[in-house]
């Protein structure tokens, strides 16, 4: 790690092509997590988004069917 070689955090993040703001935002969100935990968290977030989309699609289908059955279309 570059900080172990005596570079400051700002110098290290710039050396790998990351802005200071991105580094500190990432650190605030994921600072205490290990890499595998971060990957799992991101996987769960994607899965949750897919489930929410599926639920909204089902809700729209249900509303459409209910309207069609009542004759209010």
What's the layout of helices and strands?
Blueprint: H1 9-15, H2 20-30, H3 35-70
Can you tell me about this structure?
With 73 residues, this protein is mainly alpha-helical. It folds into two domains: 32 residues, no CATH class; 41 residues. The chain has three helices and no strands. The longest helix has 36 residues.
Short description:
The chain has helices at residues 9-15, 20-30, 35-70. The chain is mostly helical and 73 residues long.
Annotation keywords:
73 residues; 2 domains; 3 helices; single chain
**Contiguous helical run count:** 3
The computed structural class is mainly alpha
For the sheet with most strands, the description reads: none
What is the oligomeric state here?
A: single chain
Number of domains: 2
């Amino acid at each position: 790690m570059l900080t172990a070689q005596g570079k400051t955090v700002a110098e290290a993040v710039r050396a790998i092509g990351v802005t200071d703001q991105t580094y500190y935002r990432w650190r605030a969100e994921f600072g205490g997590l290990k890499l595998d935990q971060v990957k799992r968290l991101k996987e769960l977030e994607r899965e949750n988004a897919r489930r929410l989309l599926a639920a909204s699609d089902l809700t729209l289908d249900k509303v459409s069917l209910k309207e069609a059955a009542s004759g209010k279309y």
